[in-house]
Structures are given as structure tokens and as C-alpha cells.
Amino acid sequence: MFDDRTVRIIHILQDSFLPLLKAGITVTVPLAIISFILGLLLALATALARISGVKVLEGIARFYVWIIRGTPLLVQLFIIFYGLPAAGIIIDAWPGAIIGFSLNVGAYASETIRAAILSIPKGQWEAAYSVGMSYTQVLRRIILPQAARVSVPPLANSFISLVKDTSLAAAITLTEMFQVGQRITAATYEPLWLYIEVAFIYLMFCTVLSRLQNYLEAKLGRYVIK
């Protein structure tokens, strides 16, 4: 029914699916989650620095965002993994990838969070201050819960993009899903079908995440006053 080459390709795809999926679950997804969480913490700090009114903090935050948003992510990873050793700073692939992705997420997400915070009417700040709340209390109890709901769609999109961007970690020798696909391709000489299989697994992950995003948006939308 099938010729020998077709049968061979089918067997290769069958044999490679589980190793690719395992790499995706054990390396790609954890890398994305850890980097995103650290990136969000950095993004929040950066956003608060941008609106703090303290010139030094604003300047540092602006410079950080300018550098990260103005340079390619791949170049940033190369600087961290291949460039820093020239200065005596050696970072392994796994922490190097986390640092690179976290810095990237922090810069982009900070603008999302800053815009969400600034979208809250100033009257709410003033009302909270009038009842004796401190700046920290206003942020924690009033502003950030509302800003979080506004930020969910763009931040969720950023996380989905990050899952795909983790494929760049293959360039710094991290054995994530894409690099596993590259190694199998080098051994089997079937780049077309194997890369399609890798793309399919990424598509599976992103589809699940998109469904979770829709669910989260719908749940948070119940608390939005219309």
C-alpha cells in the first residue's frame, strides 16, 4: 500500500513523537513558565518604577526597556551564553535561557502592566488616600486587582509567544523540544516531516494555552462592571 520511503517516514514520526513530546513537557513548558513568572515580577517592578515619579528609577527602567525592546532576543541569548564568558562570567544553558527570556518578558510586559495601572481612574487613588491607605495598600487592594484583569489578554498572548520563542534556546545548546527535533533530523535526514511534527506539537501546546486563556478571560469578565 505504501512504498518503502513512506513507511520509513511513518516509523520515524512514530518513534520521534514521544521524545519530542517529553522534551516539550519537561523542558520547553517549564522553561516558559519559570521565565514568565520571573519576567512578570521584573515587569511589575519596572512598571512601578516608570510611574514612581523618582527620576533615577524612571531613568533606569526606561533604559532597561529601551535596550531589551531594541535588540533581538536571539542576540540577547548569545550575549548571555557566548559573550559573558569573555568577561569571566560563565552561565550554563538552562539558567542562561531563563535569564534571557525573563529579561525579555520583563521589558515587554512592563509596558502592558504600566498601561493597565494608568488606565485606572485617578479618583480611585485619591479616594483610597482619603481613607488613610498607604501607597502600598492602594496598589495591593485597589489598583493591581483591577489592572490584573485588564492585563490578562495581552499577558496571556505574551506567554503563548514565549512558549514558541523557547525554541531559540536550541541556539545556546539547551536540549529543549526544537533541539531534540534537530538531533533526530540529523540522524534520519528527514527535515521536512520532522520539523512539521515539531510544529504540530508546538501547535498543540499553544492551542491548549489559548483555551485556558479564553476560560480565564471569561471567568475574570464576570467581575467587570458593564
Characterization of the model:
The chain has helices at 4-50, 55-69, 73-83, 93-118, 122-130, 135-165, 177-188, 191-221. With 226 residues, the chain is mostly helical. The protein has a single domain, classed as MetI-like fold. Helix 1 packs across helix 4 (93-118) and helix 2 (55-69) packs across helix 4. The longest helix is centred in the N-terminal third of the chain and has 47 residues, at 4-50. 28% of the residues are buried.
Spell out the key features of this protein.
226 residues, mainly alpha, MetI-like fold, 8 helices, 81% helix, 0% strand
Quick summary of this structure?
The chain has 226 residues and is mostly helical. It has helices spanning 4-50, 55-69, 73-83, 93-118, 122-130, 135-165, 177-188, 191-221.
For the record, give the distance between the C-alpha atoms at the N and C termini, rounded to a whole number. Answer: 61 Å
The CATH homologous superfamily: MetI-like
Content-based structural category: mainly alpha
Overall number of structural domains: 1
What is the helix tally?
A: 8
Uncertain runs:
none
CATH-level-2 architecture? Orthogonal Bundle
Q: How big a fraction of the residues is strand? A: under 5%
Query: Helix share of residues?
Result: over 70%
Mean pLDDT: 93
Please report the first level of CATH classification, the CATH class: Mainly Alpha
- Identify the overall geometry: elongated
Could you name the CATH topology? MetI-like fold
- Please summarize the sheet with the most strands: none
Rg of Cα set: 22 Å
**What's the total number of strands?**
0
| Assembly status | single chain
* H and E order: HHHHHHHH
Transmembrane segments: 27-51, 63-84, 192-212
InterPro entries: AA_ABC_transptr_permease_3TM, ArtM/GltK/GlnP/TcyL/YhdX-like, MetI-like, MetI-like_sf
Membrane topology: Multi-pass membrane protein
Domain ABC transmembrane type-1: 25-213
